[in-house]
Amino acid sequence: MIDVPHTDTRPAHGTTGALVAHGVSIGYDGHRVIEDLDLTLPAGRVTAVVGPNACGKSTLLRGLARLHPLEAGRVTLGDRDVTTMPRKELARSVGVLPQTSVAPDGVRVAELVGRGRYPHQGWFGRHSSDDDAVVRRALEATGVADLADRPVAELSGGQRQRVWVAMVLAQETGVVLLDEPTTFLDVAHQVELLDLLADLNAERGTTVVMVLHELNLAARYADHLVVMSAGRVVAEGPPAEVLDARTVLDAFGLDAQVVPDPVSGTPMVVPVGRHPRGRRHTPFHSVDK
Amino acid sequence: MTTTLPATPSATPATDPVGSLRRRRRRRLALVLGALAVLAVALAGLALTLGAASLTPGRALLAAVGVGDDGDLFIVQRLRLPRLAAALLAGAAFGLAGALFQSTLRNPLASPDILGIATGASVGAVVAMLGLGLTGLAVSAGAFVGAGVIALLIWFFAWRQGLHSIRFVLVGVGFAYLASSVLAWMLASADQRDAASALVWTVGSVADVRGTELGVLGLGLAVLAVVVAAISRWQAPLALGDDHARGLGVPTDAARVGTLLTAVGLVALATSVVGPLAFVALVAPAIARRLVDDGGPALSVSVATGATLVLAADIVAEHAVLGVAAPTGIVTGLVGAPYLLWLLATHEKRTRA
Is A117 part of a structural domain of the chain? Predict the structure, then answer.
């Protein structure tokens, strides 16, 4: 269990504790992708899960969010068992943004974001003015309020991804899980989206767990970094302690230098490769001790 | 939930884009339903007035509420009203069934005609008539069994750790061809006169629906409409795909199974009374979605569109071709397809502009 120091200025989230996987096994058609995995994702913090393709990081996220059934083990959120909780109740505590999202034809931004209110509405429930207020705040928080009236299909990739994030925000959950939220975005929109998630975490104390491909952005935005390889966690902890040349070699089989990020000071992975063109510079700092 | 986003200086309702969008959607829905209702009433007036024994609209309406001479009463209450009611009820059932199939399977081609469920109903009815020598309601029961059997077969072959819509549609298309072949073989090998009466089950007609059948159709539709109202809240999240729907708290497998069972029930019910009316379940929801255009399943508008479409088709079928009273099912496609094409063409222009 990872304790969050109370000196941190971020509000501790009242309703949810850490999301914990206990001996979790997940597979597809008899083939186990993840075997007996234990992992704690600290409450009120940003966790990034990284690892090579097919290492099981997306599968893990899907298992945690109950998008895919567990073959063994269980997942708890605070003192509650996620595995047996009614789905709708879970959807009020854990929001999830899957890897691919396709909006139905004709749906407008505000309507799509409004779908995030589903778990809060009764069986014959209608949208109330409270729901409208939540949707409006989610639109504002993600900077898409002026697009409220536009069909989602007409938006650019970056705008569309922010709209989907807004839908998850409208769910008003203490935990948000995102599966490669930056995949189809250019670098500017990647940074913009990660800033948005960092804001969300800072302002609301939301626990953010995201699967990311981009190691340097993961190291910069995560409080807690989980490195996976072949269905196992090979390293976890603060990025500065976890991400070094050795871990990158172990997990990705990649020869790399790890230097401090000139902007944030967090570890920055610079791959070596076989064809380094141009003049070789010595890194201006070396992490190797 | 206790979590709240940071409060912002609240916008006044007048400048609130979220609420105003929702109100605009509600107005549009009311407008579309109102327009369809006016159209249906006008068509109903036409249906009661037209015919071999031509009545004035005034006399026809009076007869419909029980005022007039015996001849008028017989023509309107015994001949024209049941046909009118059958057209409206069957159209409503097909429209609703198609909307449920298409939204749940997330495929605009996933209608019971294409999936072979309607053809299965025809096979069931023809087996009951030609094979078992049954008549009346027993034939309708046969249609119901036929639709159910095809639905179960599709299910059995399409289910792999959950319901995948593409596989469901492809398996359904396969069974549609199989059922059509069985039907063609049975009609080809049957006695000429039997085959002629069985032909109704391959085309569909609202012309000769008796009182008891009408009662069954009305009652069944009422019951299933209540079920649909209860499960309709699943449809909007399901339209986002399984992962999003699960993330929002929808039990997706149960939701799809429940929705499809209800839709199969609607198809079986309507087909067992009027036969398979081609194209209605496919085209009515497509028209309805274009009219509403909010990314939702447009269930209520599909009901209204289906009812109006079948009524219009039946008027054309009965009166447009002099001397030949064509079965309704031959005309439904002729009436529905051009309208859908026109809607698609104009919609395309609007989004490009």
Answer: yes
